[in-house]
């Protein structure tokens, strides 16, 4: 396991190297928060943090999160996303 660190990155988790995730675990085992003076820079930090994160032994959604962070709708200054946006993307819609 490798978790990101650095200026503007905060990690919230209870997992640690060797931790055994129970079969009935909460799906959110880790939260990565990125901050900066602009949304654009915070997104850059978050992309790097996601890319640096390594969790072995269980399936994660890191690839999906990375795709979301690079999607034009999410990057847009007016963030053209809503509560149903991800469902539409997963269904192949726009």
From TrEMBL:
UniProt key word rRNA-binding: no
PROSITE patterns on file: BC (PS50979)
SMART domains reported for this sequence: Biotin_carb_C
Pfam family, one: Biotin_carb_C
Keyword Iron listed: no
Xref: InterPro entries: Biotin_carboxylation_dom, Biotin_COase_C, Rudment_hybrid_motif
Gene Ontology molecular function: any one: ligase activity
Domain Biotin carboxylation: 1-89
Keywords, comma-separated and alphabetical: ATP-binding, Ligase, Nucleotide-binding
Alphabetical list of Gene3D superfamilies matching this protein: ATP-grasp fold, B domain
Protein name in UniProt: Acetyl-CoA carboxylase, biotin carboxylase
């Amino acid at each position: 396991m490798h978790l990101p660190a650095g200026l503007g990155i905060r990690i919230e988790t209870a997992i640690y190297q060797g931790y055994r995730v129970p079969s009935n675990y909460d799906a959110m085992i880790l939260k990565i928060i990125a901050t900066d003076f602009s949304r654009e820079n915070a997104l850059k930090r978050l992309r790097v943090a996601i890319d640096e994160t390594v969790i072995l032994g269980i399936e994660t959604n890191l690839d999906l999160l990375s795709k979301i962070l690079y999607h034009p709708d999410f990057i847009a200054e007016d963030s053209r996303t809503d509560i149903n946006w991800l469902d539409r993307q997963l269904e192949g819609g726009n």
